[in-house]
Amino acid sequence: MDRMPAWADAVLVPLFSLVLAAILSALVIIGIGEDPVAAFKLMVDGALMRSSGWGYTLYYATNFIFTGLAVAVAFHARMFNIGGEGQAMIGGLGVALVCLYLPWPHWTLALLGSAAGAALFGALWALIPAYLQAKRGSHIVITTIMFNFIAAALLNYILVNLLRPPGAMDPASANFPEATHLPTFRDMFSTADTILFRGAPANVTFFIAVLACVLVWLLMWRTRLGYEIRAFGHSESAAKYAGIAPVRITVVAMLISGALAGLMALNTTQGESERLILNATEGAGFIGIAVALMGRSHPVGVFLAAILFGFLYQGGAELALWTNIPRELIVVIQALVILFTGALDNMVRMPLERLFLAFRRKEG
To answer: Tell me: the pLDDT tens digits for 116-126?
Structure first.
């Protein structure tokens, strides 16, 4: 057996990749004349040492959990869903229509309705690329990227011409009714004596994201459908031989992926903005790719990677506010993480495999 243990592949490879990305990031910070240790301490203090920082970290992480799960499900079916950004945009439209045009007596019922709307609209936006991949052979990467631009243009048209209130200047819908407003962490965890998560947008959607991790794990590893998706991803020819229909699996996997991406809009549209706005996704659909790669397409890994990227987002905001380090540096750090966990994965994996093989030979 030449491969390393599964735990080492799941833990050590991402960990070493992260360390290498951190070392190069430190060199970049030194290159612009700043202290990397002080910068890291500031990031930790701003993102993890105060409840408000945790509120922002978990808010960003919630977005990345949904988009990371969306990419992970598609990965298991051997598809690269680059369309999470557009699917989340259209999911936001589903949330807005449900919140604006249906009467809701309480936020709990509104959350159920908006979750159904977000998932349905996100899945429908993924349906056409899935059909083109399954029936026409169109590459899923190309079609989902195209649909991101189409989604942005469609949402812009709808906001400007259909949902914008009379007399309003900004391209946004009307505010959602108060009964649809989701409780924030401040509402949920503050007491009469102590106010926690002051000003942070984290809300109850975080727990929906955690539930989504559990449900995806159950789907992928405890159901027949999940087994068929993973079998198809490992070998299409073997899956066909076993009676698994490639067209059905391709379409179903992409529908699930699109629904998960669409659910991100619960956090940004209903939870934070409480109305539909342009650019609510803020690139989270693309960050989901890095989250899925680093998390090895497993829900637990996706959750942990999403927390990491939430930390980077909030920590980067602190750096931009209190130092001369530009916010764009966080994009560089994210790119380095993606580089080492994705394109240069074997650069870390192969030395570790040789190391484990040498230990086995020594023990033998």
So the answer is: 999 999 999 99
In-domain check, residue 9: no
Helices 246-262 and 84-101 pack at an angle, to 10 degrees, of 60
Count of structural domains within the chain: 1
DSSP state of 332: H
Predicted TM-score (pTM) of this structure: 0.93
Longest dimension (CA), the chain: 79
Alpha carbons 239 and 342: distance in angstroms, whole number: 26
Q: Specify which residues 203 forms β-bridges with.
A: 184
Question: Distances from the Cα of 37 to the Cαs of 26, 40, 42, 54, in angstroms?
Answer: 8, 5, 9, 21
With residue 45 as reference, give the H or E element that holds it. Answer: helix 36-48
Domain membership of residue 322 (yes or no) is no
Tell me whether residue 352 is in a domain.
no
In a domain, 177, yes or no: yes
Q: Kindly state the DSSP code that residue 35 receives in the 8-state scheme.
A: -
Between CA 114 and CA 76 the distance in angstroms is 27
| Alpha-carbon distances, residue 17 vs 9, 14, 44 (angstroms) | 11, 5, 20
Query: Is residue 111 within 8 Å of 281, Cβ to Cβ?
Result: no
Q: Which domain holds residue 249?
A: 66-195+205-306
The DSSP-derived string for 3-25 is SPPHHHHHHHHHHHHHHHHHHHH
- Structure tokens of 106? 């309480």
Between CA 294 and CA 13 the distance in angstroms is: 9
Q: Is the distance from CB of 218 to CB of 209 less than 8 angstroms?
A: no
Confidence of residue 320 (pLDDT cuts 50, 70, 90): confident
| Gap between the Cα atoms of 341 and 347, Å rounded | 10
Dihedral angle computed from the Cα positions of residues 237, 239, 243 and 244, in that order, rounded to the nearest 10 degrees: -120
d(CA 58, CA 73): 22
pLDDT tier, 334 (very low <50, low <70, confident <90, very high otherwise): confident
